[in-house]
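Recall the central idea of this unit: under ordinary conditions, the amino acid sequence of a chain determines the structure it adopts. In this exercise we apply that idea directly, starting from the sequence alone.
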Amino acid sequence: MSPRFCAAARKNRDGWSRGRGRAAGTVSRTDGKPRFQTPNSRFQISKTNPKPIAPNPKTAIRLGGWSLGEFGNSFVRRNRPKTCLRNHNSEVISENRREDAGCGSTWKGGLSEMRNHWKISILAAAAALALVPMAFTPMALAQTQSAPRGASAGPDFSGVWSLDDAGIATSPSPFAASEASGRDVAAGRIPVFGFSTEEPPMQPWAAEKYRGSRQGMAAHEAGPDEDDPIMYPYCIAHGFPRIYTSPFAFEIVQVPNRVYLIFEAGSQTRRIFLDGRKHLEGWSRTTLGVSHGRWDGDTLVVETDNLLSMDRFSRLDSFGHPFNDALRVTERIRRPNRDALQIDFLFDDPGAYTKPWPGRKLFVRKDWEITESRTCDDHQLEDFLRDMRNGKPAGRP
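Accordingly, the structure predicted from this sequence is:
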C-alpha cells in the first residue's frame, strides 16, 4: 500500500501558492494544465514546455511557497507548505500542522493521479529553477557592483563604549568625572572634559569669552554651571561634539547605510549616513548637526556640519570652548583592538579659531546596557508635579 503525499500552501490544495502584494499572481488550471499568471507575465508549465515564457524579472513570482522577489532576484522562503501523509484509502494518517488547508479534502483516484500530482510538482520546481539564472544577468551584476558601500563594508563598531576610567565606570557623576579629569591632567593625558592636552588656537573674541568664563576655576574642572545650556532650567541637549566629553557611555548600532550612536547623556541619538547621498540639505541647524560617513579601509571617516552654536553660547566641549555655526568636524573612527575605540578629530571653525586643530578621544568596550539619562529630569518632574497638585499648570507650546 503506497502512501500518498500532498502539499498545500495558503489553502491551495494542489501545492501552488497564491502570492500577495502588487506583483501577486493567480494560479488556475486550464485544459488540464497548470497555469500561472501574474499582472506582467504569463506562462504555462506542461510536460512538453517546462520552461516559462519571457517572464518579467521584476515580477515577484511565487511557486509552492517560494518567491522570486524584486529584492536581489533571489529565491526566498515565504510560507512553508503543509505536508500530510495519506493511506491507500485517502485518509490522513499524519500531518505536520493540525490546521487543514487542502490536505483534509478527499483525494479520490488511483496511482495514476498520484503520479500526475508528482509530475506537476516536479515541473513546478523545474520552472522555478529556470528563473535562477536571471539573478546573474549582466544588468543584475552591474547593479550589485555599483551599489554604494554601507555599514557592512567596514569593521563592526557595535557595542557599548565608555571612557577608560574606573571612577567613571563606577559612577558617571559630575564629581567622579571631575576627579577623573584631575587625574588625566596630572598624568598629561587628554582630560575627560576636553579633546586635547593643549589649548586650541582661538580667535581674540573666543579667547576672551573662554578666559572670562573660567576665572577662579582649576584647569581640570568643567565650565561653570550658571550659563551652561544643559543645566536647569534650560535643559538643552549636550549636542555634538560636546557629547563625547560627557562621562556617560554610548552605544553604537550599525545597519546597512547607517551608523547610529545612542548616547546615554540626554538620551540623544546621532545618525551617520553612509549611502553616499546628501541628507537634510537646507534643514535647520541642530545640536547634533548632519553627519555623512565613508569607509577608508578599516576607518570610518565622518564629516559633520549644520551645527547650532546658539549665538556662540553653546559649548564645543565640557570645558566651555565656544564655536560658530560654521564649525565643521571631521572624525576618523577606528578600533585599534577588539576592546578599544579611537576617534581622531579635526575641528575647523575659522570664525572662532585661527586654524584647524586636532583632538582625540579613547573609549573601551563595556558589557553594559545603557538607559535614559537627562540632566534636568528630576527638577522638571518636581516642577510638573508641583504645578499639577496646585492646580496651576504652566505648560506653553
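The first strand starts at residue 4 and ends at 8.
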